[in-house]
Design goal:
With 109 residues, the chain is α+β, with helices and mostly antiparallel strands. The protein is built from two helices and six strands.
Length: 109
């Protein structure tokens, strides 16, 4: 993800769906989501939580991508929406479409 200086979109598989009992099960395609850095997270200080508009947790940005997402949250604009809901019992999956505007583009606007 290095070197992006223009807006782009990215589809991500929401992590942690099957590992938590406190996740919102009723996310629907098109629902808005919010990305929130979670530096107090004991497992990963770079964790980025994904929430619905009622502030209910949907899951997390994958740990491999969390640090850069956190940087984008601090320096740019990141919005998102539910893109796809599927999976099976015991292995639910949720995909989010993120719209990312890196800081260099935001400053130039």
């Amino acid at each position: 993800f290095e070197g992006f200086d223009r807006p782009f979109q990215y589809i991500l598989d929401v992590a942690g769906r099957r590992h938590s009992e406190n996740l919102t099960p009723s996310a629907k395609i098109g629902d808005s989501v919010v990305f929130r850095a979670e530096p107090e997270n004991e497992q990963d200080p770079f964790a980025v939580e994904i929430l619905d508009v009622q502030n209910d947790r949907l899951g997390y940005v994958n740990g491999c991508q969390a640090q850069i997402f956190g940087e984008w949250l601090q320096s740019g604009i990141v919005t998102g929406q539910v893109f796809r809901v599927n999976g099976r019992i015991g292995y639910p999956r949720l995909f989010v479409l993120a719209d990312i505007s890196p800081k260099t583009h935001v400053q130039a606007a």
